[in-house]
Amino acid sequence: MGYYISLPVLILAAVLQSSLMGQLRIAGGAPDFVLLIVLLWSIHAPLNEAVFWAFVGGIVTDLMSIIPLGSSVVGMLLMIYLIKRLSVQLFRINIVLVAGFVLLGTVIQISVTHLILAFTGFGLLPGDIFQYVIIPELFYHLLLFLPIYLVMRGVQQRIYPEPGTRL
Predict the structure, then answer these.
(1) Do the Cβ atoms of 99 and 142 come closer than 8 Å?
(2) pTM for the predicted model, two decimal places
(3) pLDDT at 22 over 90
(4) How far apart are CA 41 and CA 110, in angstroms?
């Protein structure tokens, strides 16, 4: 079921991100809803579903922007891989770990995307990326991750109920 809701959710998030979020810029950075949704869904999702969400999220992000198609996909897949590798080692995921995953995932996604842009000739200076993109996005993501995480986790618990529980 998670596969079926990914496309409308991520398309809506990409449209909001490319239209509305441009108005909320602080020092050049804006929240990345697609990144947050993919990351927060993937924490508790199976690996194959998390990869699907990362692929779809990366494609819709690239289609709504001017960066080369597939740039965001590479960053999101790498982000999901590292986060899933870390979460397998943990017994329980709490909100502090989710915040850490948001910070780590944001830095990975931005770094990989800007590295790809640098190879294509459209890159920024590393200091500018840090000051005008990474820091503002980290600020936004730390403010927004909790409400988005609660919604995502609630949807996941409705789709995949724990054995022995009733809805």
Answers:
(1) yes
(2) 0.88
(3) no
(4) 19
